[in-house]
Amino acid sequence: STERLTHNSSSNSSNMSSKPSIPAHPSGETMKAVCFTSFGKPDDVLSVQVIPKPFVSDADEVLIKVHAASLNPIDKWRVGGYLTEMFPEQHETSVLGYDVSGVIEQVGEEASKSFKVGDEVFVRLDGMKYGASAEYVVCSVPEIAKKPSNISFSEAASVPLVGLTALQSLRKGGVTEGSKVFIPAGAGGVGSLGIQIAKKMLKASHVCTTASPGAGFDICKKAGADRIIDYRSENFEEALAGEDFDMAFDLMTEAGRMGALLKKGGKIISITGNPNEDGAAENAAKQAGGTWEFLIMHPDGKDLAEIATYIESGEITTFVDMEAPSIDDFKAAVDRLWSGRSKGKCVIKIA
Question: pLDDT band for position 14 (50/70/90)?
Answer without folding.
Answer: low
